[in-house]
Structures are given as structure tokens and as C-alpha cells.
Write a structure and sequence with these properties.
Elements lengths: L3 H20 L8 H11 L5 H16 L3 H10 L6 H17 L2 H11 L6 H12 L6 H5 L3 H8 L10 H14 L5 E8 L2 E7 L4 H15 L6 E9 L3 E11 L2
Antiparallel strand pairs: 1-2, 2-4, 3-4
Helix pairs in contact: 9-10
């Protein structure tokens, strides 16, 4: 049987060993590049201990970022770009947007339900509002959707865009402009898409946009021949887009 004094002594000895283990200096061979960085900060009065502590904390902070954010960094940074360089650019971009009051636009859109509207679309809507209810064909035909699609896709030729890219542009930009608060896109197959547009207006508003997008997706300018069906409701409109064939 082990006496109580022996137990205390063993516990005390273990505490001493653990303390010695934690206080034991860490030795590691470093590359010339790392040595030069250490010397750089030693000349500024930083101790090796501070360098190690700060480096480990920085490493731990970076690796504590969620996997989704790490994936975002890898997706958008240049091939040979350092992580810190990408983060610097992201912070600068965020600051630039603040300077431009982009957050004010987002607040106005969300809180005041304001729309981002171009001159051409504004004139069309005025004309449509003044015209008899059955006279919407002209603003349908004269729209700038293709111009906006080209702009969003970095001016790539229209014939080089896939139907999915075109639909995704509509989904993104018509929500950013606040014409719709959500646009759901379901890709049923490679040549069949279902779209559901949700808005806060009325059925006439939905009828206008149904005609607008029908004109867009059946345009001779698009690289695909499509069949379009749709229906407008009080606060939504649904569309089915079926791709027939790619034009020459």
C-alpha cells in the first residue's frame, strides 16, 4: 500500500516535471529566409519570445477562419498571390465601398424599398404607366437587358455566354436593383429552367416584367432558340424557359 506522503511526493515531482517541460526552451532549425525575418524584427527591439508568441497567435487566428472563408480566399485570389496580399486588397475594397456610400444604397434599398433604375427603363415605365393597360408591347421590345448582361459578364460576346450565365445575371442584377426581392432559379435539366420572381407590387407590375423577360429570352440576339411560358400573379410571376437549340 502506498502511503499518503509518498502520494504527495509523487504529485509534487510530477508538477515539477510538467513545469520544467513547459519552461524548456524550444529549439528549431529555420531557413535563411526565416532567419532574415527574425533579424529584421530583432533590430527593431522585438524579442525572440515575442516573435514566436505573435507568430503562433497569428497562425492560430488565420486557421480559425471558417472553411467557407478559406474557400472564398482560394477562389478569388490570384494564382501566385499571397494570402495577406489578398486580404489587404479585400480590406481596401471594403473601405472604398464605404467611401462611396454603397452601404447607404443598400440601406435605402432594404429599408425604403428604393430601386436602382436606369434612364431607359425609367422612361419605359413612365410610358407604360401613361399608356392604356393593354399597350405594353413597346416598352417590352425596347429594353436594355442585353446591355446589362454584357456589362455584368465583363463584356464577353453574347454568343459565348451560356443560358445559365444569362439567367444567373438576371437573378443577380434584378435583385440588386430591387425590382424583385428574390428570384429563385431551378435548373431542372441542361435545357430546362424554372424561374420564380417575387415582388411587392401588383399583378400589372408582374405582367409588365413577364412580357419584358419573354421578349428577352426569345430575342433573336440570344445565342439560343428558346420556348418561354409564364404567368403573373399579385406578388410574383413564374416562368419556364426551355432551350431548343443553339443558333449558328
Amino acid at each position: 500500500m502506498v502511503k499518503n506522503n509518498d502520494k504527495k511526493n509523487n504529485s509534487h515531482n510530477n508538477d515539477i516535471k510538467e513545469h520544467e517541460h513547459k519552461d524548456k526552451p524550444i529549439y528549431v532549425k529555420v531557413s535563411d529566409e526565416t532567419r532574415n525575418l527574425i533579424d529584421k524584427y530583432k533590430e527593431k527591439g522585438t524579442t525572440i519570445s515575442d516573435l514566436v508568441r505573435n507568430a503562433v497567435k497569428c497562425y492560430d487566428d488565420f486557421n480559425s477562419i471558417s472553411p467557407e472563408m478559406h474557400a472564398t480566399i482560394e477562389k478569388f485570389k490570384e494564382v501566385d498571390e499571397r494570402d495577406i496580399s489578398f486580404i489587404e486588397h479585400a480590406i481596401k475594397y471594403y473601405g472604398d465601398q464605404k467611401v462611396l456610400d454603397r452601404d447607404l444604397w443598400l440601406r435605402a434599398r432594404d429599408e425604403m424599398k428604393m430601386m436602382l433604375i436606369g434612364k431607359t427603363t425609367f422612361n419605359q415605365l413612365i410610358a407604360a404607366a401613361e399608356a392604356p393597360k393593354e399597350s405594353l408591347e413597346k416598352p417590352w421590345r425596347k429594353n436594355v437587358a442585353i446591355d446589362l448582361i454584357l456589362w455584368y459578364n465583363d463584356s464577353k460576346p453574347l454568343k459565348s455566354l451560356s443560358m445559365e450565365e444569362i439567367i444567373n445575371t438576371v437573378q443577380k442584377m434584378w435583385v440588386v436593383a430591387n425590382y424583385f426581392h428574390t428570384i429563385d432559379v431551378k435548373k431542372e435539366s441542361a435545357d430546362l429552367f424554372y424561374l420564380l420572381f417575387r415582388h411587392r407590387q401588383n399583378k400589372r407590375y408582374g405582367i409588365y416584367w413577364l412580357g419584358y423577360f419573354t421578349e428577352l429570352f426569345t430575342s433573336e440576339e440570344l445565342p439560343f432558340k428558346c420556348e418561354v411560358e409564364g404567368q403573373a400573379f399579385d406578388e410574383s410571376l413564374s416562368m419556364t424557359i426551355k432551350i431548343g437549340y443553339k443558333k449558328d
